[in-house]
């Protein structure tokens, strides 16, 4: 067991931090992850065919940072010239001054001169300003080679990092929200702590049904129109629907309070939260998740958002289980009893007092979950299912390399990137588990 | 034990219902009309008109055969203005238009009258044969064009719900009726359609659209899919579909054959690889895991831990691609063939089993390695961890104190108990066999279930995907059951009776 510092109050959080720092591989992993995150965040600046800065005909532009797609430049003779940012042939243009991105290529953009798998060390070509094809200058080399359409591998890797990390992060954020909520409800209330009057229970059930009708069924055409208009309208309309749903359920719940005072309706009923949540977890466990994800990805429109949501909705069980176990322990601790005797609302105790202490085990599950989410996404994009075909990901790069076995760079580098990211998350997960597990205290 | 198993099996039922519901929800939301898939490839010769007639007949046949003429589910929630027979409008777009009209006006009688009138008008216009004398007056092209236009307008009207759109089309029709005398036979109908629409828009009954209504349907698509179209318990009297519970999986869009046939052909290869790889993985990983645990912190433990950790994080598709790249590469080492499970020429009919194996073996080695690899790392790690936990127990210390040899301690006392978590992995064989490894089978082009799933996804053959999903779910549950029984066999302390 650890020695307590007599002058410092013992804090488990500090202790766990210290334990985690002792675990060298895990600690290094955090820095590697940070490095990857920086790459992911700055991907559009790190790899972009648009120059970061140009000085052109006396004007200053920052094409890589621009939201506009057209530049209008007034020539000396009064005529005006238009540059279309997405299709301009930047490398052919004559600038007074230009600052290129470190990797002057956009992922997935074909480079006809270097199409058909050009190796990193081999011959690559370049069209110079006069239009003549010359061996590529060092600055514009595809440093990790190219794919079938001459697309730059390094640029693909950098932007792939962005996609992989986002998928891992967002899908696990969804899973964490669901898992923490259900897990803490199940653990805290158990099978017989959540009681309500019969009247209120049935009123809420009725309320859910009515809320569904007015929130979604009656508004289905409004929502359908919103899908067609724009993401923002859809979000707004969905929010409106959810407000209706919450309001109706609240109304019925308050009505239920009144109804619950009537005879027969005032009998207590138990809501077996734990049983319900545990059964749901078991059901999710029996589901072939990868096949389910494949099935939905095959039927829904290919989109990264869909994939994140599906992975999130199917991978919360681990988090819920661990949180439930932790809450089963916490709910009997003195400070919870104290809070209860002070008359705090059950939900305040649960989410404000118990949750911060009950989250630790979930962290381990989250780290492993991110690793597996990244693996699932890369497998999906390797198969080309569910991911839009114009999005370059690590998995899709390996798939491109599968077409031609001699293009080893297309298999090795993206594979390594996936491997390193997954390992890093696994190491962090192991480190967290060791640091948070009291049995392992050294 | 018996009681526990019974409880377990009873618990399967809600799980199965949820899995089947999920599969069903996904399948009815699949884009595209199944009938178009089933009938489009049908080649029927003859004139265009007979062709369309044939297609319509064929569609009608498949609609009945697939049960698409039934309501979707046991219950449907809608507004009170919607009639419970709306599912009988088969055309998706037409049904949507009707639903939207209902939500706009709420008076079903008028909407039904309007819709019926549209159909009458459509038939009337289709039967219209203009007097050739009109050709001289208005020009042949004009006459034919206006009639085609009129037909198209009717078609659009059936799918329309926006007022402006409907008004526009109705006005065009009214204009034709007023201008061209050869529209005389349908003039009456057109005017009637117009009045009906005016009635429809003027007599709104919006109150009903804001009231919820529930309709119940005993016989529906879900029921039919699960229990068939006969008696739900005995299956008597079923014609086209015996139901999932009796092993009828429906029809594949791609081959138009029962899905069961497809699965039967394919499953043996997935089963072969699942079994071989699991057995191989056990043979390799158990000794490694136990040895590592027995000599904790020895160099062997440390190196094997690191290697396994690394292996664990490598994506299977990457390893498989690297294997192919290294050993089946025409430009480098070309030891093994890159795809398939037998030579392109096939295996001669008179070949005995020895030559069959000899011919097939080179094709099987790389996939077997990849399949085994995908389980190896996980199994060894789990073996090591569980053995470590056992070794720390008191009874092992006692065994050592008795002076038993290390071998006896580990393999006789510890091993049996360390088996428990490993059994869990064994239960995954069944689901693995049915869904196959989609990734590995696709990479190595093995004609197993996984490759079939991939193919089904690319060709949008939804029934196959949905059935594989459902079957995998069922088999996962069976796997858990088997694991439970095996637990009890491996560890007599586990007594399910007390639960």
Structure summarized in a few sentences:
The complex is a heterodimer of chains A (442) and B (499). Helices cover 59% and strands 7% of the residues of chain A.
> Strands of the largest sheet of chain B, in order across it?
1-2
Averaged pLDDT of chain A: 86
Percent range of helical residues of chain A: 55-70%
CATH superfamily annotation of the largest domain in chain A: MetI-like
Q: Main sheet of chain A?
A: 3 strands, antiparallel
Instruction: Give the helix proportion of chain B (percent range).
Output: 55-70%
In total, the number of strands of chain A is: 9
- Name of the CATH architecture of the largest domain in chain B: Orthogonal Bundle
CATH class of the largest domain in chain B: Mainly Alpha
- Counting DSSP E segments of at least 2 residues, the number of strands of chain B comes to 2
CATH superfamily of the largest domain in chain B: MetI-like
User: Which topology of the largest domain in chain B does CATH recognise?
Assistant: MetI-like fold
Structure write-up:
The complex is a heterodimer of chains A (442) and B (499). Chain A has 442 residues and is mainly alpha-helical. Chain A has four domains: 10-48 and 152-194 and 271-442, MetI-like (MetI-like fold); 50-100, no CATH class; 110-150, no CATH class; 199-261, no CATH class. Chain A is built from 16 helices and nine strands. The termini of chain A are close together. Chain B has 499 residues and is mainly alpha-helical. In chain B, 68% of the residues lie in helices and 2% in strands. Chain B has 20 helices and two strands. Chain B has a two-stranded antiparallel sheet with strand order 1-2. In chain B, helix 2 (34-40) crosses helix 3. The mean pLDDT of chain B is 82. The chains are: A mainly alpha (442), B mainly alpha (499). At the A-B interface, helix 5, helix 8, helix 9, helix 14 and helix 15 of A face helix 1, strand 1, helix 4, helix 12 and helix 13 of B.
């Amino acid at each position: 067991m650890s020695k307590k510092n007599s002058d410092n109050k013992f804090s488990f959080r500090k202790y766990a931090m210290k334990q985690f720092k002792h675990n060298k591989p895990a600690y290094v992993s955090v820095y590697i992850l940070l490095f990857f995150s920086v790459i992911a965040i700055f991907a559009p600046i790190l790899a972009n065919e648009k120059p970061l800065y140009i000085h052109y005909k006396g004007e200053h532009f920052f094409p890589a940072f621009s939201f506009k797609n057209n530049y209008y430049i007034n020539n000396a003779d009064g005529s005006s010239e238009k540059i279309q940012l997405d299709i301009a042939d930047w490398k052919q243009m004559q600038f007074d001054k230009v600052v290129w991105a470190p990797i002057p290529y956009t992922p997935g953009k074909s480079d006809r001169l270097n199409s058909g798998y050009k190796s990193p060390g081999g011959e690559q070509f370049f069209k110079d300003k006069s239009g003549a094809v010359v061996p590529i200058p060092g600055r514009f080399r595809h440093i990790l080679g190219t794919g079938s359409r001459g697309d730059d591998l390094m640029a693909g890797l950098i932007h792939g990092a962005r996609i992989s990390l986002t998928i891992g992060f967002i899908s696990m954020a969804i899973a964490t929200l669901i898992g923490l909520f259900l897990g803490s409800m199940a653990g805290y209330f158990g099978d017989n702590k959540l009681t309500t009057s019969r009247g209120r229970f049935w009123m809420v059930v009725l309320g859910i049904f009515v809320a569904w009708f007015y929130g979604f069924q009656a508004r289905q055409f409004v929502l359908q129109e919103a899908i067609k208009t724009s993401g923002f309208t859809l979000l707004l309309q969905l929010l409106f629907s959810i407000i209706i749903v919450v309001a109706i359920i609240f109304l019925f719940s308050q009505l239920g309070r009144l109804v619950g005072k009537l005879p027969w309706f005032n009998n207590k009923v138990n809501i077996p939260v734990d049983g319900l949540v545990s059964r749901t977890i078991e059901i999710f466990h029996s589901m072939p998740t990868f096949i389910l994800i494949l099935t939905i990805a095959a039927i829904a429109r290919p989109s990264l958002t869909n994939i994140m949501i599906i992975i999130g909705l199917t991978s919360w069980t681990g988090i819920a289980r661990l949180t439930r176990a932790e809450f089963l322990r916490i709910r009997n601790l003195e400070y919870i009893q104290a809070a209860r005797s002070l008359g705090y609302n059950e939900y305040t105790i649960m989410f404000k007092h118990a949750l911060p202490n009950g989250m630790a085990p979930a962290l381990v599950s989250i780290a492993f979950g991110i690793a597996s989410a990244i693996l699932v996404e890369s497998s999906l994009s390797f198969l080309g299912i569910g991911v839009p075909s114009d999005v370059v990901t690590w998995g899709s790069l390996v798939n491109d390399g599968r077409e031609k076995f001699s293009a080893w760079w297309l298999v090795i580098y993206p594979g390594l990137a996936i491997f390193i990211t997954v390992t890093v998350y696994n190491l962090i997960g192991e480190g967290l588990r060791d640091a948070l597990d009291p049995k392992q205290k050294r | 034990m018996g009681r526990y198993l019974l409880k377990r099996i009873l618990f399967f039922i809600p799980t199965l219902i949820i899995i089947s519901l999920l599969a069903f929800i996904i399948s009815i939301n699949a884009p595209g009309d199944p009938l178009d898939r089933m009938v489009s490839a049908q080649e029927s010769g003859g004139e265009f008109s007979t062709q369309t007639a044939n297609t319509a007949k064929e569609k009608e046949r498949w609609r009945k055969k697939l049960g698409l003429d039934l309501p979707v589910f046991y219950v449907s929630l809608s507004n009170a203005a919607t009639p419970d027979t709306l599912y009988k409008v088969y055309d998706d777009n037409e049904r949507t238009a009707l639903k939207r009209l209902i939500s706009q006006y709420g008076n079903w009688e008028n909407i039904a009258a309007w819709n019926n009138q549209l159909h009458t008008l459509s038939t009337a216009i289709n039967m219209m044969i203009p007097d050739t004398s009109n050709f001289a007056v208005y020009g042949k092209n004009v006459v034919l064009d206006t009639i085609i236009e009129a037909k198209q307008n009717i078609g659009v009207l059936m799918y329309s719900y926006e007022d402006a759109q409907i008004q526009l089309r109705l006005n065009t029709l009214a204009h034709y009726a007023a201008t061209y005398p050869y529209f005389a036979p349908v003039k009456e109908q057109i005017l009637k359609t117009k009045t009906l629409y005016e009635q429809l828009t003027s007599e709104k009954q919006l109150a009903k659209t804001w009231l919820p209504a529930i309709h119940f349907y005993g016989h529906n698509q879900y029921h039919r899919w699960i229990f068939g179209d006969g008696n739900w318990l005995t299956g008597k009297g079923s014609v086209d579909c015996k139901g999932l519970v009796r092993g009828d999986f429906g029809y594949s869009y791609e081959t138009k054959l029962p899905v069961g046939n497809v699965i039967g052909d394919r499953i043996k290869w997935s089963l072969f690889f699942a079994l071989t790889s699991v057995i191989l993985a056990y043979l390799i990983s158990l000794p490694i895991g136990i040895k590592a645990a027995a000599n904790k912190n020895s160099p062997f433990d440390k190196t094997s831990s690191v290697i396994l950790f690394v292996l664990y994080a490598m994506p299977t598709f990457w390893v498989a691609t690297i294997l192919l790249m290294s050993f089946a590469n025409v430009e480098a080492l070309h030891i093994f063939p890159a795809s398939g499970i037998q030579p392109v020429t096939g295996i001669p009919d008179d070949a005995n089993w020895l030559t069959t194996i000899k011919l097939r073996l080179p094709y099987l080695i790389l996939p077997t390695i990849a399949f085994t690899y995908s389980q190896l790392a996980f199994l060894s790690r789990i073996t090591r961890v569980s053995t470590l936990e056992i070794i720390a127990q008191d009874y092992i210390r006692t065994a050592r104190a008795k002076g038993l040899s290390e071998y006896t301690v580990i393999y006789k006392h510890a091993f049996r108990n360390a088996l428990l978590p490993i059994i869990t992995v064994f239960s995954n064989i069944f689901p693995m066999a049915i869904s196959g490894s989609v990734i590995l089978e696709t990479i190595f082009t093995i004609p197993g279930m996984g490759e079939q799933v991939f193919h089904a996804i690319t060709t949008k053959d939804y029934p196959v995907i949905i059935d594989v999903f459902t079957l995998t779910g069922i088999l996962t549950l069976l796997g858990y059951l088997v694991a439970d029984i095996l637990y009890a066999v491996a560890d007599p302390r586990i007594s399910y009776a007390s639960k």
